[in-house]
Structures are given as C-alpha cells and as structure tokens.
Design brief:
It is built from five helices and four strands.
Length: 110
C-alpha cells in the first residue's frame, strides 16, 4: 500500500519556486529519492498559482515515511521552508491496490 503526500508550498515573491530550486540544486532531492521506500519526489508548479509549488511525495508505506521524517534531510527541509517563509497545505492518499477499473481504462490513451 503506497502512500502519496501532496504538499502545496506557498509563499510570496517567487519563494516557493526558489525553495524547490534550492532543494534540487543542493542535492537534497536526490538524497531523498535514494532513501529506502521512496517511490516519487517531484515538484510541479500549478498554472493558476505562480506563488505555489506542489510536491508529490510517494512512499512504500508509513514506516518509510517515518524513517524519512527522522532523517538528516528533514532538518534541511525545515530550515529552507523557514528561509523562504513558506506555508503548507497537505493532502494524503493511500493507493488503490485493485488498479484502474475497466470503466475508467477506456478514457486512458497509452
């Protein structure tokens, strides 16, 4: 059962984008991606909100998330969030192990 956490980082003056850029350039993102249990760690920018960056953060299970929360990267993330004065909105999703229903598959072009 994979767990995906969507984190919307919001700020002013482009700070959310600067935060994501620094996370990538500093190597923190690559370190997180290499952590045991990480399935996805990617940033996106919503087209209708230039002051927000969306992080899609997916893990194999809660234990992997807990380990990540106790890793040295968390302190770096916290410090960068403070540096850029970001606020967060969080959504959490648990994967549907049954897959895509046939009724939905007809609408997906591969």
């Amino acid at each position: 059962m994979a767990i995906t956490v969507n984190i919307y980082y919001s700020g002013t003056n482009g700070n959310a984008g600067k935060f994501a850029q620094e996370m990538m350039e500093s190597g923190v993102v690559e370190k997180i991606r290499s952590e045991k249990g990480n399935l996805r760690y990617e940033y996106f920018m919503p087209m209708n909100d230039p002051e927000t960056v969306l992080l899609i953060d997916s893990w194999e299970n809660q234990s992997a998330i807990d380990e990540h929360h106790h890793s040295p990267m968390m302190q770096t993330i916290i410090e960068l969030r403070e540096k850029y004065d970001l606020h967060m909105k969080v959504e959490r999703y648990v994967s549907d192990e049954t897959g895509i229903p046939q009724s939905d598959a007809a609408f997906i072009k591969e």
